[in-house]
Amino acid sequence: MLLALLNTRGWSEGKWRTLIEEGKEYDVIGVCETGWHDSIEWDEGGWVGIGRGRKVGEKKGGGAGILMKEKAGRTIEEINPTRDIENQLGYNKGDIVTVKVREQKEVWWVTVVYMGVEGRGNQEDNRKLFEAMLEIKEKVGRDKWVIMGDMNGHIGLMEERVNRNGELLLDFSEKSGCRIKNWESENPTTWRDRNNESAIDYILVNESVNRQGCRIWKNEDVDISDHSMIGITCGKHREENNAKKVIWKEKWDVKNANWIEYCRGMENTMPGDTEGIGSTVSEWEQGIKNVIRQEAKKAIGTKQFKIGKTRLKGWWDKEVGQAIRDRKKENRKQKSVAKLARLQGGRYEEEWREAWDRYQEAKKRAQSLVWKKIGMWEEEQA
C-alpha cells in the first residue's frame, strides 16, 4: 500500500487534477484543505474521495479528506463512529475523518486530521482531536491504522523547540503505541516559504503497519502548495508494481491524420474486382481490409497507450504537462540554491532571489495555461 499526504492550500480544478496526475502511482492520498465545507464526496479520474469541512460561517476547523484510487476489489467507507466520538467530546468542526479501505483480505484504517495552529484559542480543540483519535484506536483493534495530517506541531525535528501541539502529539504517540515515521526521514522539512521552513505535517502508524517494514518518503516534485507531499510505502508495493507486465495497445491517430493523402491512396490501390485478391468472398474481404490498413498506416498512423492507465480527459494535454515540468524544474533549482544561500550566504543570496523569481514566473505561466485550457474545454462542452 502506498499512502501520501498533502496540505493542498486550495482545491481548484487545476490543483486537484494536478494532484491526481502526480499521484497516479499512489493508492491513498490524505488531503488537508481549509476551503472545504460540510461533507465532501468526490469521484473523478479513477479516484473516489470522502472529506469533511467546517460548517459554512464557522471560522475555525476543517477540512480533512481521503482520496482512494479505484481498483477491483478495493472499497472505501467512512467510519460513522468518528462523528459519534466527536459528539461525545463536544467537538465537531470537520477537521478529522476516518475511513476503512478494504482490499482483498486486508483492512486499513486511515485517519486524516488538521490541527489548529499554536495558540490558546486552539489548544482545547486540539486536545479533543487527540482524545478522539485515542477513541478510534480502541475500535481499530489489530487492523492496520495510518494517521496523517497537518498537526502544526514541533516535536524536536530540525532542532525546533517542542511546542504545545508537539507535546500533544508526542503524548498521543506514547499512549496509542503509534510510531511517528517522521523521525526516520533524512530531510524532515514539510513546509517552506521564501524565508522559513519547518516540520509540521506528520504520518503515524500502528504496530500492525510498522511490522510490514514501511518506509517514509517525501516528493517535492508535487509543488502545488507550500507544503511538501510526504508518504509511506508499506509491504512490497513498488516491487510488485515494477514486476507487473506492461501491456500496450495501438489506436489510430485520427487527430493528426492526412485525410487527403489517405483518399488518394485508396483511389490508386483499391481494386475494382476480386482479381488478384482471392477467389472467395472471405479472401476478397480480407484483401480489402489489408489495403485499407496499409493506406491508413501511411496517412493516419497509430499511437500507443497502456492498458488500464487512467487518462485525464478534457483540457489536460502535452502543453500543460510541459508547463508543469518546467515549473518543477525551476522549483528544484531555487531549492538547491536556497540551501547554498542558507549555508554560505554571500553571492548565493542574490542568485537564489533570481532563481526564486524564475520559479514564480514559471508557476504563474503554468497556472494561466491551466485556466486557459479549462475555459476552452468548457466552451467545447457547452
Walkthrough of the structure:
The chain has helices spanning 13-22, 81-89, 120-140, 164-176, 207-210, 237-243, 259-269, 281-299, 318-344, 347-381, and strands at 2-7, 28-32, 38-44, 47-53, 64-69, 74-78, 96-103, 106-114, 144-150, 179-180, 191-192, 197-198, 201-205, 215-219, 229-233, 248-252, 302-306. The strands form 4 sheets. The chain has a 7-stranded mixed sheet with strand order 3-4-5-2-1-15-14, with no helix packed on it. The protein folds into 3 domains: 2-243, Deoxyribonuclease I, Chain A (4-Layer Sandwich), CATH 3.60.10.10; 248-306, no CATH class; 318-381. 41% of the residues lie in helices and 24% in strands. Helix 1 links the parallel strand 1 and strand 2. The chain is an alpha+beta fold. It has 10 helices and 17 strands. The protein is globular and about 85 Å long. Helix 3 runs parallel beside helix 4 (164-176) and helix 7 (259-269) runs antiparallel to helix 8. GO terms for molecular function: catalytic activity. InterPro entries: Endo/exonu/phosph_ase_sf, Endo/exonuclease/phosphatase. It comes from Chionoecetes opilio. Residues 125-230 form the Endonuclease/exonuclease/phosphatase domain.
CATH class of the largest domain: Alpha Beta
| Count of helical stretches | 10
Terminal Cα separation, in Å? 40 Å
Number of domains: 3
> How many beta-strand segments?
17
Roughly what percent helix? Answer: 40-55%
**What is the makeup of the main sheet?**
7 strands, mixed
Radius of gyration, whole Å: 26 Å
CATH homologous superfamily annotation of the largest domain: Endonuclease/exonuclease/phosphatase
Protein name: Endonuclease/exonuclease/phosphatase domain-containing protein
Domain Endonuclease/exonuclease/phosphatase: 125-230
GO molecular function: catalytic activity
InterPro entries: Endo/exonu/phosph_ase_sf, Endo/exonuclease/phosphatase
